[in-house]
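Researcher: Structure for this, please.
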Amino acid sequence: MPESTQQQPKPAGSTEHNPDPRPANRNTADSPVPWRTRAAIASIGMLSFVGILTETSMTVDFPVLIRSMHVPLTTVQWLTTGYLLLVTIVMGSTAYLLKRFNPRALFFFALATSIIGSLICLVAPGFALLLFGRMLQAIATGIATPLMFQTIFTQVPVRKLGVYTGFAAVIISLAPALGPSYGGIMTSVWSWRAIFVGVLPLLVCIGIAGSFSIHGTAPGVAGQRFDVIGLTVLSCVFLGLLVAFNEAGRGGWLSPRFWIGLLVVLALIAVMVWHARHGARRLFDYSILDNRMVRLRLFSYFGMQFINIGISIVFPLYVQDVLGDSAMTAGLMLLPGSLIGSIAAPFAGQAYDRSGLRRPITVSITLMVLALGLLTGFAESLTVVLTGIFYTLLRIGFNIGFGITMSDASKYVAPRQKSDQNSLFSMMQQFAGSLGTAVMSAVIAAQTLHMPVSSATISGSRIDFIILLVLALAIGACVAISFHARREA
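Model: Predicted structure, token format:
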């Protein structure tokens, strides 16, 4: 695609970070962030936290749910895949919703759906109702996450943007850090239903805090009408990809349904591209993708989340099906690395604010490649301790690079396009997790068609690690290309 004609920010002095213009009502660069803004970010962020917490809590319970509900892995994984898919679809609409509705109204709608969804999951007698409750929770997360970033991008001074996006990354990444341990402990003490009991008091506290701190008005849609056709086609593309990989898990990679599904998805992508170029309505301002830097950052952001969520599916299956340990062990094994990784995010944000993207993103990619290389090499001889160590390296690398990648992309987007960039990146982040879950599960499930569960999990895990390693190397290549492009600009 051609480069955008929009003027791109240039490096100032020896730093790579040079902020873009902001609306006149923004705080000045050196002004403190008001307590109400900080409380609003925290309240919305915690609502997103609850959604991600329950999502990652459920992954360690897949073996338990398979046995108790008598459903296969290719079905039970829809508790995560379907959840993330709906989050993705909802986020696809937030470029419009954030302009159309006030933050306070969006927050309380998301809060209500999260509470109702949690109650339904708590009492669900079977898989279908449990999945329905998870879908309601997905709506809440799909609204809350973009709303949090929108608050940051519009209310936080630009010189503090890295710190606050780092803080947002902590909120988002702390949930996966605690989720497996929380889910494993609750399941071991009582049952998987306890996961939803624990979040209900937290949701009440979030509602009280948000009622005092979240204010503001919607910027308006300026006569723009919602793109129903665009969202429908985009949703079909995402759903088609997930169903195709689900069929690969059921019938193997040579399954005709898998390949037919991919062909249908390609046709839908062609329809989506045509509609984006010629349709009277658009979900996003797609012109932001004319900028090469935004495209490169979006790929990196997508790839990091694919690795992050994908690996969280593989480890619990490996620990329980190969090593024979419990769901609680699988959760606690991931806790140290996730907590350490979460702590790294705000420091990475500070480093980005001081000196730009190059150093922290280089460390990030190096650690991810190292961890995935080690996992690939030790795939047949992993222990709980080794897995925990390798996961710690991976999580530190992920958390260093994830938040600042989105922050850096925002430098190349005009102020009026911030909600479009926010919605697009948030949507692709969630779809990355959904696709990562589907692909990683399909690889292991396909192996079980030819060998016992334990051997299939080892073989499938090795293939999964290789896939993620190649993706991490591709992210590194994209970052290198972006630095080369900046030097030539």
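Researcher: Any notable elements?
Model: Confidence is low (pLDDT under 50) at residues 1-29. The chain is about 75% helix and 0% strand.
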